[in-house]
Amino acid sequence: MESAKSIDELQNFNFEIKKIFDDAQDFLPIMGTDYIELYVGNAKQSAHYYKTAFGFQSEAYAGLETGRKDIASYVLKQGKIRIVLTTSMIKGGDISKHVDNHGDAVKIIALHVEDATIAFNETVKRGAKPYLQPTKEEDKNGTIIKSGIYTYGETVHLFIERKNYSGVFLPGYRKWDSHYNPKNIGLKYIDHVVGNVDWDEMNIWCKFYQEVMGFAQIISFDDKDISTEYTALMSKVMSNGNGRIKFPINEPADGLKKSQIEEYLDFYNGPGVQHLALATDNIAETVKEMKERGVEFLYVPETYYDDLLERVGKIDEDLNTLKEHGILIDRDEEGYLLQIFTKPILDRPTMFFEIIQRKGAQSFGKGNFKALFSAIEREQKNRGTL
Ligand code: FE2
Fold first, then answer.
1. pLDDT mean over 311-337
2. Quick check: do 30-175 and 187-383 share a fold?
3. Can you point out the beta strands (E) in 270-373?
4. For the segment 122-161, what is each residue's pLDDT rounded down to a tens digit?
């Protein structure tokens, strides 16, 4: 485990971070994540789950009542996080095939941009595979321009230009009023979105984010950082120029037994989104609430906390509360962070969530990887897939 850094090391570190962001080219200015859309088998019931278990609020709806005979789509919101759940109501078609292939899964990582036509042209010019040509959509609330490109697997990035739109979500959606409104649980924004890619493809996709989208690599972990006796993976974190969008990319690495990334690839049938990290200002309260509402978290062995304070130094939180909930803590040069991972939220061991609270730290919990993966391996063993 890493100890405190010297002043020199700290200055070097800050210099490197600054240089990385200077190197990130801003031909693709992104204001933030606009929404995450999942294609699911039953959007109505999924929406109920996200409201009940995660405290998302009813925001917008499209379906039969709004003139859509092919899909039903529910938009949920909490803080700045917008999740869209879409299901198909017709036989065949892209949504049904996506669900058949991957199970309920993230299809769209939508990015809020100033100009969706420029975003499309600049990325396609640099080699992106087009998904949606710049398309204008309008209703009485104004105009949206959307465009899109493919990223890893069947996942896509949509660019959303909404400066001339004042409606609740997108044209075609209406406000969704519901009598059922469980309290929000303090989730604020999407901290990062992690993709799992195939063997030896991590660098290909990092290069894609660098060259096609102008991102820079801010962190890398190799299999020595992230391995246990049995399983291994490698990971690099790509960030856009203003640091609002962070995409870690994982690939499996050889271990004695099956990597958790390989297990994901097997059940997902290829690369896709592994987890969404959602930020809170009070992780103990958020996690307590989620547990009461039935969300299951990865088990963290009690021994993890034995040498914790030696490892991370002084923290503001009560250690017993963190221990009670299995919240992990890690420190870097700039501060510390608290994080916890849910079990997969689907029957297939594919997608899960991370809840994260940053107290200065801008990293991703490197010191927790080993403790965490030992915990994940126990779960894999229970599923008979280790
Ligand atoms: Fe994460």
1. 92
2. yes
3. 272-280, 328-332, 335-341, 352-359
4. 999 999 999 999 999 999 999 999 999 999 999 999 999 9
Q: What is the pTM of this model?
A: 0.90
165 alpha carbon – ligand 1 mean position (Å): 32
By C-alpha distance, which of 61, 62, 52, 56 is closest to 76? 56
Q: Ligand 1 centroid vs 133 CA: distance in angstroms?
A: 31
What is the Å distance from ligand 1's center to 279 Cα?
11
The CATH topology of domain 30-175 is: 2,3-Dihydroxybiphenyl 1,2-Dioxygenase; domain 1 (3.10.180)
What residues does each domain of the chain span? Answer: 30-175, 187-383
Q: Using pLDDT thresholds of 50, 70 and 90, give the confidence band for residue 110.
A: very high
- Find the 363 Cα to ligand 1 centroid distance in Å: 10
Residue 99 φ then ψ, to 5°: -70, -40
pLDDT per position as a tens digit, 46-93: 999 999 999 999 999 999 999 999 999 999 999 999 999 999 999 999
Q: Which amino acid is at 331?
A: R
CA of 212 to the centre of ligand 1 (A): 23
**pLDDT tens, position by position, 172-207:** 999 999 999 999 999 999 999 999 999 999 999 999
pLDDT score for 235: 86
Listed residue (204, 188, 111, 118) closest to 153, CA to CA: 204
Q: Are 190 and 81 in contact (CB under 8 A)?
A: yes
228 pLDDT above the threshold of 70: no
Tell me, which fold does domain 187-383 have in CATH?
2,3-Dihydroxybiphenyl 1,2-Dioxygenase; domain 1 (3.10.180)
For the chain, first and last CA: distance in Å? Answer: 26
To 10 degrees, what angle do helices 369-383 and 260-268 make?
Answer: 50
Instruction: Give 177 Cα–ligand 1 centroid separation in angstroms.
Output: 33
Q: How far is the CA of 195 from the centre of ligand 1 (A)?
A: 10
- Residues lying with their CB under 5 A of ligand 1, a single-atom ion: 277, 354
Strand partners, 73: 62, 86
Cα of 164 vs centre of ligand 1, distance in Å, is 34
% of the chain beyond a pLDDT of 90: 73
